[in-house]
Write a structure and sequence with these properties.
By secondary structure, the chain is of the alpha+beta class. The protein has two domains: 121 residues, Gcn5-related N-acetyltransferase (GNAT) (Aminopeptidase, 3-Layer(aba) Sandwich), CATH 3.40.630.30; 163 residues, Aminopeptidase (3-Layer(aba) Sandwich), CATH 3.40.630. It contains eleven helices and 15 strands. The strands form two sheets. Strands 1, 2, 3, 4, 5, 6, 7 and 15 form an eight-stranded mixed β-sheet that branches. The radius of gyration is 20 Å and the shape is globular.
Length: 294
């Protein structure tokens, strides 16, 4: 029987073992996201018989992820046994595991597409270089910011983490009027990440103006090919720094083929912004539920 536990920093090795060398693209498979968003989604995991099983939610709202491991059917049967249901609900992303799921029991499920949760995945080279006509406006934004500000990019290290904390505090203060449980969870997560940069294998960068950090970004690897951007913030008076920090940080990630900038949460402005960077992959996500005719 599966024994689920909450995600803790010490669990990072388990996730690397199962996911690090896989072809997974989804940001939801990043260990740091499992850890940071646990307070909002009740993310838990279990390992048994060479399978990593992840679930979120609780009670009737429990959603299982498709199993990681070398025996999909074994993982599926473990989930069935734990859930007490022949066809439990799944949250799934495009990829090899979804294709295996479709082959195994697609006729038993309805696949409900969730556009608000699609991941925006870009070629690292596109974001780092911003070359060609399609990125003309982005280069103009950076040029305008550079004319208005004397700025510099700095990697985040133990020496400047205090600067990043101050920038984060100011950003959350500026946006306190729209704070909800998700923003509060994210704010807590920023603290966890900054407290454990080395243990969580976090990379980060910041844009400075006048010796002050006015924008920062934090991320970690999902796999050997995919790097995920967990947090990206710019102060209200320096909104154009989003374009700058995006490019400058991408330049430091040349060892990765893809950069995952996560979903748009159904926000029109955010969707427009993410599409403007021309994603190489728009990764579909599905709520998989049992067909009522069964």
């Amino acid at each position: 029987m599966l024994k689920f536990k909450k995600t803790e920093i010490e669990d990072i090795g388990i996730f690397k073992k199962y996911i690090g060398s896989s072809r997974e693209l989804s940001c939801e498979s990043a260990f740091v996201n499992m850890l940071v968003w646990q307070c909002a989604y009740n993310n838990m995991w279990a390992e048994e018989a060479g399978q990593l099983i992840i679930k979120s939610g609780e009670g009737e709202s429990t959603l299982y992820r498709l199993p990681f491991g070398d025996d999909f059917r074994k993982g599926f049967e473990l989930i069935r046994e734990h859930s007490g249901r022949e066809f439990p609900d799944f949250w799934a992303q495009e990829g090899e595991r979804l294709e295996e799921f479709r082959t195994y029991c697609a006729d038993k499920y309805i696949f409900e597409e969730n556009r608000d949760a699609f991941d925006y995945i870009y070629l690292q080279s596109d974001l780092a270089e911003l070359s060609g006509k399609k990125y003309h406006s982005k280069r103009n934004h950076i040029s305008a910011f550079s004319k208005a500000n004397e700025w510099e990019y700095r990697p985040i290290t133990p020496d400047n983490i205090r600067d990043i904390r101050l920038c984060a505090e100011q950003w959350y203060s500026e946006n306190s009027g729209r704070a909800d449980k998700y923003m509060l969870c994210e704010k807590r997560g920023v603290g966890i990440i900054l407290d454990n940069m080395e243990r969580l294998n976090i990379k980060g960068g910041a844009v400075y103006v006048g010796g002050k950090a006015v924008a920062f970004t934090l991320g970690s690897a999902v796999t050997n090919e995919v790097f995920d951007i967990h947090i990206e913030k710019a102060l209200a008076d320096y909104a154009a720094a989003y374009t700058v920090i995006n490019r400058e940080f991408a330049k430091t990630l040349s060892e990765y083929k893809y950069i995952n900038r996560e979903d748009d949460m159904g926000l029109e402005g955010l969707r427009k912004a993410k599409l403007s960077y021309k994603p190489a992959i728009l990764l579909k996500k599905y709520h998989c539920v049992k067909k009522e005719t069964l």
